[in-house]
Amino acid sequence: MKTLKFNFTPPFKGHVQVMMPGWPDFPLKRLLLDIKASNLVEIPLAGFRNGKYRVTLDWEADNRFFIHQQEFEINDNPNFFPATR
């Protein structure tokens, strides 16, 4: 199964939102995070088609607020190699 994986130092609370970059007002997935023990967060991407996406994580830890955005691409073609920058 396709997943995004992030490591955090627990405990923390936050949100995850996955969207297509051209459609920021229509998130495809929203999750509430409340991590108390594990430092690994896995976001399932079952049902997502090939294409480019953006994940936004916002969280609170030690009374401080953080945000992280990252773009990623799903391509199930075994002969696909992404171009390097």
Plain-language structure description:
With 85 residues, the protein is mostly beta strands. The chain has one domain. 0% of the residues lie in helices and 55% in strands. The protein contains no helices and six strands. It has strands spanning 3-7, 12-19, 29-35, 40-44, 51-61, 64-74. The strands form two sheets. It has a four-stranded antiparallel sheet, with no helix packed on it. It has a two-stranded antiparallel sheet with strand order 1-4. It starts with a strand and ends in an 11-residue tail after the last strand. The mean pLDDT is 82.
Q: What is the number of helical segments per DSSP (H or I, 4+ residues)? A: 0
Query: What amount of the residues lies in strands?
Result: over 45%
Give the CA-based shape. Answer: globular
Helix/strand structural class: mainly beta
Q: Average pLDDT across residues?
A: 82
**Strand arrangement in the largest pleated sheet:** 3-2-5-6
Write the layout of secondary structure elements.
Elements: E1 3-7, E2 12-19, E3 29-35, E4 40-44, E5 51-61, E6 64-74
Antiparallel strand pairs: 1-4, 2-3, 2-5, 5-6
